[in-house]
Design a protein that fits this description.
Layout: H1 3-40, E1 55-57, E2 60-63, E3 68-71, E4 77-82, E5 86-88, E6 94-102, E7 107-109, E8 122-126, E9 132-134, E10 144-146, E11 149-153, E12 155-164, E13 170-180, E14 182-183, E15 192-204, E16 208-210
Antiparallel strand pairs: 1-16, 2-5, 2-15, 3-4, 4-6, 6-12, 7-11, 7-14, 8-13, 9-12, 10-11, 13-15
């Protein structure tokens, strides 16, 4: 056989082998390149149905340093305003408690059917922040009577509903004004009023990740 023909055939076989190796290399590298391409584009990965990305959950807490107290000039009535520290959400109602202690032998008049010479127990509340909504005070009914008029003895607990139209980390102040007239079986003291400035602190807790 002609040596040139043999050489040509051998060269053809070598070339064919090189083509096969090239094709095999491409087949082997294609998945690797595809994986690398997918890994680089993870930020744009489509989330499968039924799953959602992690969401940041913000928790808010409402609190105050300590209960705030005030005493009447006569010393016969002591008022204390407070509320429990707790988590809170927008438009959720928090009750501010107003505790009233009455000296033994004295009483305070409750809600009277008509205006008269006595000043009934009442609570007014205000704040300078428009995001703080305060409702009317809830005062328990008098449990006793004197001269046919409702009276409170010993103590009573009233509450003020407070809501936030929006929440943000801030310090608030609620002004609570209580009016009353302390009487005993012999004399009625002049009408009095006590004012309590109750600080309210809204803080943001550490954000959590929720699936």
């Amino acid at each position: 056989m002609d040596r040139r023909i043999l050489t040509t055939r051998r060269n053809g076989i070598v070339t064919r082998h090189r083509q096969l190796r090239g094709t095999l290399a491409c087949c082997l590298l294609s998945p690797v390149l595809a994986m690398a391409s997918t890994g680089c584009g993870r930020n744009a990965e489509v989330v499968p149905g039924g799953e959602r990305p992690n969401a940041v959950v913000t928790n808010w807490t409402i609190s105050h340093g300590r209960p705030v107290s005030a005493q009447s000039e006569s010393g016969e009535v002591t008022l204390t305003a407070s509320f429990p520290e707790r988590d809170i959400a927008v438009s959720e109602t928090v009750s501010v408690l107003v505790e009233t202690k009455i000296s033994p032998g004295f009483h305070l008049y409750g809600e009277l059917p008509s205006q008269g010479p006595f000043t009934p127990f009442s609570i007014e509340c205000s704040t300078d922040d428009q995001s703080l909504i305060i409702g009317p005070a809830s005062i328990p009914e008098a449990s006793d009577t004197a001269d046919g008029k409702p009276i409170h003895r010993d103590s009573l607990s009233a509450s003020l509903p407070v809501q936030f139209s929006e929440l943000q980390a801030a310090n608030y102040r609620v002004t609570i004004k209580v009016q009353f007239q302390a009487c005993n079986d012999l004399v009625c003291l002049p009408p009095e009023s006590c004012t309590i400035e109750l600080p309210i602190v809204v803080s943001q807790s550490t954000p959590l990740l929720e699936r």
